[in-house]
């Protein structure tokens, strides 16, 4: 692991997707302020997650990672965070109970405020403005004022992350996530949707199992809370660097902005700044791999990011697209397996399946999402490797952003509740449908 000076090597390397700020002095002042603020997460928690991910790499646990595409400052409130957590908990219960596998729960939450974009600008009715890059950089509103990059937003992102993480810790440790509450999470949902009714039946079985275990002498308080971890894409390196601290116990650097950080598909260049910076922090980390990744790219990333071959350190999050997963994924897994490197493999069935509907809304078909996950399981089953988890964009609200699902949304419905700040998310029913399908696939594999 690196010395403090080596943590700045990235500054001399190409760093893609970094915002241009108007006033470097203002950025320096903000970064200095960030560097004085308390850690959001602790080194020991990151180490614990690394151990959980080592279980995943060994085939003994499954990751459920998800949340908004882009969190917003306005969304850092109790209702929105509770709804997201509630859906994550419901999905985790379905997976744990129906697939009988320990589920490592990681929110794409409490820090997912910066977005890489395909184009620097956005045009509407002949007007061109800079693209929205996440609330950490500029505002979503289509006005020149909102779209101006404002470094003070880095501080607001830190505080919004702190608020969100505080809520997550309270909900997951303070009794709300108690397994004896499985019915309560579904109360507002049960009658409305096929997924809700299916979940309710499973919750009834869990109730009976808990009563049985209690009768056998198990301590029901064991089910009081759950382990929950935060994660986001480590995109804005000034922010991540300012929140990197040397742990007083181990003397090693941890990025204390989240437990788990990942490098996106657009910034995973081997000789780039993002790969260098993440190679030097001690957190468990991930890399997104799209369909253009070669087996040699995967090996080179392993060599750079986990040269010691430590289990749980490195997760590959594959996002091939439903049409490509069955041919693009096997050569990667095969070569990594031959190398003996311990990698946890997770499927992101969202980012390879985005298209634009005739109405102009960016959307995804639930069928494509399900098909990519099915392909991911088929490939792992054929190769005898472990399908280690899913990474999804979802929300706890009944939005209309992805088409299809058990309670189908058609393209003409997209305008009804299209609320994402960036890419389309699964709503609660679509997320539960996915969890039931994954549980079945897991059982079979
Ligand atoms: O969430 C991922 C990316 O930021 C997003 O897909 C980029 O979208 P764009 O192609 O509209 O820029
Ligand atoms: C940008 C993202 O994905 P990818 O890097 O896989 O495109 C994302 O997960 O927000």
TrEMBL record:
Positions that bind Mn(2+): 69, 351, 393, 423
Documented EC number(s): 2.5.1.54
Binding site residues for phosphoenolpyruvate: 108, 265-266, 288, 319
GO terms of molecular function: 3-deoxy-7-phosphoheptulonate synthase activity
UniProt KW Transferase keyword: yes
Top enzyme category: transferase
Biological processes annotated in GO: amino acid biosynthetic process; aromatic amino acid family biosynthetic process; chorismate biosynthetic process
Cofactor note: Binds 1 divalent cation per subunit. The enzyme is active with manganese, cobalt or cadmium ions.
Cited SUPFAM superfamilies: Aldolase
Residues in coiled coil: none
Associated pathway: Metabolic intermediate biosynthesis; chorismate biosynthesis; chorismate from D-erythrose 4-phosphate and phosphoenolpyruvate: step 1/7
Catalysed conversion reaction: D-erythrose 4-phosphate + phosphoenolpyruvate + H2O = 7-phospho-2-dehydro-3-deoxy-D-arabino-heptonate + phosphate
Cofactor: Mn(2+); Co(2+); Cd(2+)
InterPro entries (alphabetical): Aldolase_TIM (IPR013785), DAHP_synth_2 (IPR002480)
Keywords (A to Z) from UniProt: Amino-acid biosynthesis, Aromatic amino acid biosynthesis, Cadmium, Cobalt, Manganese, Transferase
NCBIfam families per the UniProt record, alphabetical: DAHP_synth_II
Family: Belongs to the class-II DAHP synthase family.
Name this protein carries in UniProt: Phospho-2-dehydro-3-deoxyheptonate aldolase
Gene coding for it: aroH_1
């Amino acid at each position: 692991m690196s010395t403090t000076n080596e943590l700045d090597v990235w500054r001399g390397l190409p760093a893609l997707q970094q915002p241009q700020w108007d006033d470097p002095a203002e950025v320096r002042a903000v970064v200095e302020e960030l560097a004085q603020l308390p850690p959001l997460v602790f080194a020991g928690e990151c180490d614990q997650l690394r151990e959980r991910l080592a279980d995943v790499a060994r085939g003994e646990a499954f990751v459920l990672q998800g949340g908004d595409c882009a969190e917003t400052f306005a969304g850092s409130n109790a209702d929105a965070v509770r709804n997201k957590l509630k859906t994550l908990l419901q999905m985790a219960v379905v997976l744990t109970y129906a697939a009988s596998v320990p589920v490592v729960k990681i929110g794409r939450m409490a820090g997912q405020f910066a977005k890489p974009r395909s184009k620097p600008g956005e045009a509407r009715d002949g007007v061109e403005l800079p693209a929205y890059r996440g609330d950490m950089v500029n505002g979503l509103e289509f006005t020149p004022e909102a779209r101006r990059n404002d470094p003070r937003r880095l501080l607001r992102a830190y505080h919004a992350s702190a608020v969100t993480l505080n809520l997550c810790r309270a909900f997951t440790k303070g009794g709300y996530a108690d397994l004896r509450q499985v019915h309560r999470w579904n109360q507002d949902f049960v009658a409305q949707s096929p997924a809700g009714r299916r979940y309710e039946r499973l919750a009834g079985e869990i109730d009976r199992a808990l009563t049985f275990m209690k009768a056998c002498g198990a301590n029901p308080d064991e089910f009081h809370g759950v382990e929950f971890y935060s994660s986001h894409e480590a995109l804005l390196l000034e922010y991540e660097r300012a929140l990197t601290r040397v742990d007083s116990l181990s003397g090693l650097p941890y990025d204390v902005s989240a437990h788990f950080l990942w490098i996106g598909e657009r910034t995973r260049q081997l000789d780039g700044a993002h790969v260098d910076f993440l190679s030097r922090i001690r957190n468990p980390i991930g890399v997104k791999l799209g369909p253009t990744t070669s087996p040699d790219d995967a090996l080179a990333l392993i060599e750079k990011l986990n040269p010691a071959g430590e289990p749980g350190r490195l997760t590959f999050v594959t996002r091939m697209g439903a049409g490509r997963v069955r041919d693009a994924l096997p050569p990667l897994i095969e070569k990594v397996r031959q190398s003996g490197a311990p990698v946890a493999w997770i499927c992101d069935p969202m980012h390879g399946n985005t298209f634009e509907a005739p109405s102009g809304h960016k959307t995804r078909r639930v069928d494509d999402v399900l098909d990519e996950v099915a392909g991911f399981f088929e490939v792992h089953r054929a190769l005898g490797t472990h399908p280690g988890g899913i990474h999804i964009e979802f929300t706890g609200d009944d939005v209309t952003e992805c088409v299809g699902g058990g309670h189908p949304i058609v393209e003409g419905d997209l305008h009804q509740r299209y609320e994402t700040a960036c890419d389309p998310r699964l709503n609660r029913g679509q997320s539960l449908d996915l969890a039931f399908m994954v549980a079945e696939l897991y059982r079979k594999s």
